[in-house]
Amino acid sequence: MDSPAAAVIPAVYGASDRPPRGDYSRGGSVQADYTCPQDWASYTAADHDTYRRLYERQAAQLPGLACDAFINALPSLGVKDRIPHFDEINERLHKATGWEIVAVPGLIPELPFFTLLANRKFPVTDWIRKPEEFNYIVEPDVFHDLFGHVPMLFDPTFADYVQRYGAGGIKAHELGAGEKLSRLYWYTVEFGLIRQPDGLRAYGAGILSSVGELQHAVLSNEPRRLPLDLLRAMRTRYKIDTYQSNYFVIEDFAQLFDLTAPDFTPIYEALAVEADIEPGVLLPGETGKA
Ligand code: HBI
Ligand code: FE
Fold first, then answer.
1. Residue nearest to atom 7 of ligand 1 (CA)
2. pLDDT (tens digit, 9 = 90+) per residue, 164-201?
3. Measuring from atom 1 of ligand 1, which residue has the nearest CA?
4. Is residue 15 part of a domain?
5. Nearest to 110 by CA among 61, 177, 65
6. Is residue 256 a part of any domain in this protein?
7. Ligand 1: which of 30, 110, 138 to mutate, most ligand atoms within 8 Å of CB?
8. CATH number for the domain harbouring residue 72
9. Closest atom of ligand 1 to CA, residue 125
10. 74 contact partners, CB below 8 Å, separation of at least 6
11. For residue 13, is it within any domain?
12. What's the gap in Å between 8 CA and the centre of ligand 2?
C-alpha cells in the first residue's frame, strides 16, 4: 500500500507539538529571512539516489494526470539522476518568469514565507528524506519542493499568482487571517486541479509529488470536486496526513490571478462570521462533481 500524500505541510506552522525538522542554525549560515546556502556538498550518494528514484517513479505517471504546464516545464529542472544545484535551475527560471528559488532549512514561519513569495523567491528545503521515508514524509523536502512546485513557476500566469498570493499573505498576517488565507494556498498551489480541454489534470504540488494521490485526485470517484470559489475554499478545513477528500477545480491560471486581485479585507470580515466546513462535506446545491 502506498502511503498518503508523499509530502504534506503542517496546517499551521508553530502549532506543532514538535519543532520543525531541519537545522536552523547551520553554524550561522541561515539568514534573517530564513534563507541559507544550498548545502550541496553534504548530499551523500544515497541522497542523490533517493532523488533519482523519486523523480523516475513520479515522472512515469504524469501523462494524462498532470497539467500541460507542469509536464512541459519539468525538463527545465535539469538533471534527474541527482539533486540539482539550485543555481543552475535559477538561470532558466529567472529568464522565464523572473522567479528564483532560495534554499531554506525546512518549514519556516508564515510571515517570512509570505515575504519571500511576495519577492518572487520560492523557498526550497534543501535536505532530502531518508530511504525509509521513500513513500511518505510529513514535512516538505527537496523532492516535494523542487519537483512539485518549481515547474509551475515557469508558467508566467501561475508565477504572477504566487507572487500576488505572497503579498496578500503579508496583509492577511497583519489582519490575523493567515490561517484562512493558507487554505487558499493549500487548495490551489498544493492540491489544485485544472480542467484542460482533454480532461481534469493536477497542478498542485502536493498531488504532483505524491505517489498515490495523483490517481486519487484526478481519477477516483471518492473525493468531492468543487469549482474553485474563494470563500468556499477559505472556509474549508483540510487534512495533512491523508489524501484530500475534496479538491477545487479551476478553468485556467488567469482565474487564480484574477481571484486574488481584490483587497481581501472585507472577505476576511465576511469569513469571520461563517462557520468552517469540514473536509469532504457538501453544502446544499453542491454535487461535488465539478
Ligand atoms: N515553509 N519551507 C516552507 N514551505 C512551505 O510551504 C511553508 C512554509 N511555511 C509556512 C507555510 N508553508 C504555510 O503557512 C502556507 O500554508 C502558506
Ligand atoms: Fe508544498
1. 107
2. 999 999 999 999 999 999 999 999 999 999 999 999 99
3. 107
4. no
5. 177
6. yes
7. 110
8. 1.10.800.10
9. 2
10. 59, 62, 147, 151
11. no
12. 7
Which of the residues are catalytic? 144, 149, 190, 209
Asked if the model's pLDDT at residue 12 lies above 90, the reply is no
- The mean pLDDT of 15-31, rounded to a whole number, is 78
Instruction: Indicate which residue's Cα is closest to atom 17 of ligand 1.
Output: 182
The residue count of the chain comes to 290
Query: Structural domain of residue 50, as residue ranges?
Result: 26-272
Cell numbers describing residue 175: 489582519
Nearest to 51 by CA among 177, 145, 189: 145
Cα(123) to centroid of ligand 2, in Å? 10
Q: Is residue 289 part of a domain?
A: no
Distance 139 CA to ligand 1 centre (A): 10
- pTM for the full predicted model: 0.93
Number of domains comprising the chain? 1
Which long-range contacts (C-beta less than 8 Å, at least 24 apart) are formed by 27-36?
A: 30/105, 33/112, 33/115, 33/116, 34/104, 34/105, 34/108, 34/109, 34/112, 34/116, 34/123, 35/102, 35/103, 35/104, 35/116, 35/121, 35/123, 36/103, 36/104, 36/105, 36/126
